[in-house]
Amino acid sequence: QVHVVESGGGLVQAGGSLRLSCVASGATLDTYVIGWFRQAPGQEREGVSCINHYDGRAYFRDSVKDRFTISRDMTKNTVYLQMNNLKPEDTAVYYCAFQPYKGPGYCGPPLRYQYDYWGQGTQVTVSS
What we know:
The protein is mainly beta and 128 residues long. 0% of the residues lie in helices and 50% in strands. It has no helices and eleven strands.
């Protein structure tokens, strides 16, 4: 059983930065595709980014390109979502999710049904 925990959310002013962490127990990163999703109040959960650890290929939705990056620490089984130049429209609960997959390929855009294991979410609030 894979257990996923996100952390790092918080309140930040527009233009600020946050780094979200996603730690998985019961899984090794190189056998999964990792996705980041977010859900704002009253809106559908949307895919923000994903990374295929097998070949390192990553995807970012257009609205976060050039502002968000993904990195990983394989020794800590942790994936990070670095969010820079945050905007009020980035306000949402952010979720990390794991999709069992080992092989080359482009992971995006991430779709909810593709992912089997989810964290509880971490709140990101960006004030204007």
